[in-house]
Amino acid sequence: MKCIETGWISSEGPFVAQFESEFAKYVGREYGIALSNGTAALEVAIKALDIKQGDEVILPTFSIISCAGAVFKSGAYPVLVDCEPSTWNMNLDEVEAKITPQTKAILVVHTYGLPVDMERVQNIADRHNLRIIEDAAEMHGQEIRGRRCGSFGDLSVFSFYPNKHITTGEGGMVVTNCPKLARRCAQARDLFFAPPRRFVHEELGWNYRMTNMQAAIGVAQLENIENAIRKKRKIGLYYHESLKDISSIEIPRQRTDFSDNIYWVFGIILGGKYSFDASFAISELEKRGVGTRPFFWCVHEQPVFRKMGFYKNEHYPVAENMARRGFYLPSGLGLKPEEQEYVCGQVKSFFRAS
Ligand SMILES: *Cc1c(COP(=O)(O)O)cnc(C)c1O
Q1: Residue of the nearest CA to atom 4 in ligand 1?
Q2: Ligand 1: distance of its center to the CA of 204 in Å?
Q3: Which residues of 57-78 are buried (b: 16+ CB within 10 A; e: fewer)?
Q4: Is the CB of 109 under 6 A from ligand 1?
Q5: Do residues 48 and 74 touch, judged by C-beta distance below 8 A?
Q6: Model pLDDT for residues 96-117, shown as the tens digit of each residue
């Protein structure tokens, strides 16, 4: 309300800097650069590291297209790795095996609720002199051995899309401890406007600014972040308890030895017993009044990249199975206990009958 009453709605307003500093502090970083969305944050992070044509960036094939898309748009090449079956996250043994003299960075994506072991990633990066971008878009408040996601590597990226733990409608942020990278991110977000002469540009950037109104929402959302995280975890644990005895499906692990699941979403992967795939389960549950969503589709199977001639003979069996046989249950912050009970009842009766 204060934002609207003052009339400061543009990106020049004071809530942008406030949201940047409060969110950066929340994750344990020195600097935050607020952006129009998480996809923009990935593009800006890659630009800030000077990743360009001839460079390779290693990332999981199982992720949102924003990650590989940002690498391609920079002119660099996304080198893919499969998932680890137990956490659904990128397989770090494969990361090591895919490093070449062209490799410039590892783009880590923490997926669905369990984080990647960033100590191990840091160790790999140190040994091979690589940069690290941490995509923590699904991990607001998640911790690895007690240290917040978003505090690892050279730059970390967040999204504030409505299905994330906190939202600004659309929005994103890059956080970093490096003043030089922070400055480059801020410039890339703002078309590389720079002194001494406005409208004279040394580099190409984007208009990816966040508005004061979005940032004001972000400041207010941040006040409530612990509630949001608690509620997500409660929803996740309820699903876990309710569904853990269905042996024909795979559900997320509650924890690893360095982290507890934050349950950004609660996924189910169909076991080998079922001859149908996730799209059938999704449509059957829809008929029973339960809205679900399919898992990500693998980068190496994206028609857009195949048409460009990439990844034609590459296979990543764990990720391919997840993309075909995985879907996730309702877990929005507005989900009521009786609705979740209904969902569990329907899911159980569907699997019992299948
Ligand atoms: C949501 C998400 C993004 C993209 O964020 P947008 O704000 O929707 O552009 C990027 N990476 C991951 C892992 C995400 O979950």
Answers
A1: 38
A2: 23
A3: bbbbbbbbebbbbbbbebebbb
A4: yes
A5: no
A6: 999 999 999 999 999 999 999 9
